[in-house]
Write a structure and sequence with these properties.
By secondary structure, this protein is of the alpha/beta class. Helices cover 40% and strands 13% of the residues. It is built from 15 helices and 13 strands. The strands form 3 sheets. A 7-stranded mixed sheet has the order 2-8-7-6-5-3-4, sandwiched between helices.
Length: 432
C-alpha cells in the first residue's frame, strides 16, 4: 500500500498532468488499475472481453472518440508508468549522467531493444525522437541533394511529411514530383504502376506514407521499395499511422528510412516517436540538432537522439505501451481494429451517395475507413456527430473537392459507440 504522503503526491501529479479533478486522481492512484480480462475470455466471448478491457482507459462516458488516427488514447498502465517515473526522477536518486537527451542510458537501451524487436530491425538502426514529423525532418534536412534532383511524394502526405520537402525545394532548388493515389485503389499493381510512371532520371528519393493520413489507405510498401531499389532510388516511409495498426518488419519492407508516431495506434504517451535508418545509410545523414556527439558515428542511429535535455518519462511510457500491447497480443489487436473498421465500411456502403475512399479490399485498410460525398453534403453528418459528442476526422468543402470523413476504430471502441455513429450518419443523410 502506498504511504499516504506518496499517495497524495502521486494523485496531485496525476491531477495536474491529466487535467482531472484531484478527487478523481486520488480515486485512481489510490488503487491498482483493473487487471486485464483473462485471455480465455477472448476465445470464449470476444465482445465481453473487449467490453471488460474498456476500463483500462480514462475515457469520458459522455464522449465517443473515433479519431485516434490523430491522437491515440493512452491506457492507465502506461500513464501510471510515466507518472511514476516523473515522481521517481524528482527524487534525484538516479546517477547524474547519463540522462535522456545526451548519453544513452539503461532505460533507453531496454526500450530500443523492445522497439527493435517489435518493428523488425536492429537497435542501432533506431533513433528515439518526439514524433514522426521530427523524424521526417531529420531525413529531409539531413540528406544531401543537389539543385535539380527530385523527391517523389504522393498527393496524400501529411504536412508533417510534406512541408519539409517543400522548404528544401524553396531553399536549395530541388524538384518535387507527386503521385496521385487512386481513391480507392483497385489493386497493388495499380498503385505501383503509378509510382513507376512518375519516376524520372532525376528522382533521388521516394517519400510516401505507409498508411496515408488523408484516406487511411495502406500502401504496398514492400513493392514500392523493391521498385525503388531496382532504379537506384532511396525510400523514406512516413509510418505515423502504421505502428500499432499493422504488424511491422522493417527489414522485410526494404525501406531505407522509416518514421513513426507511437502515440497514435500504439497508444504511447504523446511526444514519443522513432526514426529507422538502414545500417548502410547511418553516416549519410547530417544531424538536424548538433550537440557534442554530432559526428560520433560509433553511436549509429542514437546520434540522431542527441536532442538536449528531454523527457525520459514519456519514453518509459513508450516501453510500457509496448508491454501493454504484448500482454493483449498484437495479432488480437490488429484483428479487432480491422473487424470494427469493416463494420463501418459495410454500413457506409449501404448509402449510394457515399464513396469509399480507401477500403476497397482488406489489403488497403487497417483500423481506418474514409468515405467521400459531393461538396457540402456531409456537413449535416458533422453536425449530427457534434450533437452526439462524437469525435471524427474529415473536411467539408463548399465547392470543388469532395467532402470526406475518416473513422478510426481501436480496441477501446465499443459496438454501441459505432451504433451511435451510424445513427448520426443516418440522421445527417436524411435517412433516420
Amino acid at each position: 500500500m502506498l504511504h499516504r504522503r506518496a499517495f497524495l503526491q502521486r494523485a496531485a501529479v496525476g491531477a495536474a498532468l491529466l487535467g482531472i479533478p484531484l478527487a478523481s486522481a486520488e480515486q485512481v492512484f489510490g488503487q491498482e488499475p483493473p487487471p486485464l480480462p483473462p485471455r480465455a475470455l477472448l476465445e470464449r466471448d470476444p465482445e465481453r472481453y473487449w467490453a471488460e478491457l474498456r476500463p483500462q482507459w480514462l475515457l469520458a462516458a459522455d464522449r465517443i472518440n473515433l479519431n485516434c488516427g490523430s491522437v491515440g488514447c493512452t491506457p492507465w498502465p502506461v500513464l501510471r508508468a510515466m507518472i511514476a517515473h516523473i515522481l521517481e526522477g524528482e527524487t534525484f536518486r538516479d546517477p547524474a549522467y547519463p540522462w535522456f537527451g545526451y548519453e544513452e542510458n539503461a532505460r533507453l537501451r531496454e526500450l530500443r531493444d523492445a522497439l527493435a524487436a517489435f518493428v523488425g530491425c536492429r537497435r542501432d538502426e533506431l533513433a528515439l525522437v518526439r514524433n514522426a514529423t521530427e523524424a521526417n525532418n531529420i531525413v529531409c534536412n539531413g540528406l544531401d541533394m543537389q539543385p535539380g534532383e527530385e523527391a517523389l511524394l504522393t498527393d496524400q502526405e501529411h504536412p508533417g511529411g510534406r512541408c519539409c520537402w517543400e522548404q528544401k525545394a524553396a531553399r536549395f532548388g530541388i524538384r518535387l514530383n507527386y503521385v496521385t493515389l487512386p481513391k480507392p485503389p483497385a489493386s497493388t499493381e495499380e498503385i505501383v504502376e503509378r509510382f513507376e510512371r512518375a519516376l524520372t532520371p532525376a528522382t533521388k528519393i521516394i517519400v510516401f506514407s505507409h498508411i496515408t493520413t488523408v484516406t487511411g489507405v495502406v500502401l504496398p510498401v514492400k513493392e514500392i521499395c523493391a521498385l525503388a531499389r531496382r532504379r537506384g532510388v532511396l525510400t523514406h516511409v512516413d509510418g505515423a499511422h502504421a505502428i500499432g495498426q499493422l504488424p511491422l518488419h522493417l527489414h522485410e519492407l526494404g525501406c531505407d528510412f522509416y518514421a513513426a508516431s507511437p502515440h497514435k495506434w500504439l497508444m504511447a504517451p504523446k511526444g514519443t516517436g522513432f526514426l529507422y535508418i538502414r545500417e548502410g545509410h547511418l553516416e549519410k545523414l547530417w544531424v538536424n540538432i548538433a550537440s557534442g556527439e554530432w559526428r560520433n558515428y560509433a553511436q549509429k542511429a542514437y546520434r540522431f537522439s542527441n536532442l538536449g535535455t528531454s523527457n525520459l518519462s514519456v519514453m518509459v511510457g513508450l516501453k510500457a505501451a509496448l508491454d501493454f500491447f504484448s500482454a493483449i497480443g498484437p495479432e488480437h489487436i490488429y484483428a479487432r481494429q480491422h473487424e470494427l473498421a469493416t463494420r463501418v465500411r459495410d454500413r457506409v456502403r449501404a448509402y449510394p451517395q457515399l464513396h469509399i475512399a480507401n477500403a476497397s479490399d482488406d489489403r488497403f485498410y487497417g483500423g481506418m475507413v474514409s468515405f467521400e460525398a459531393d461538396p457540402g453534403s456531409l456537413q449535416p453528418v458533422f453536425a449530427a456527430c457534434a450533437a452526439r459528442q462524437i469525435r471524427i476526422a474529415g473536411v467539408t468543402q463548399p465547392d470543388g473537392e469532395a467532402d470526406r470523413i475518416r473513422i478510426s476504430t481501436h480496441i477501446f471502441t465499443q459496438p454501441g459507440e459505432l451504433e451511435t455513429f451510424f445513427e448520426a450518419l443516418a440522421t445527417g443523410l436524411g435517412r433516420a
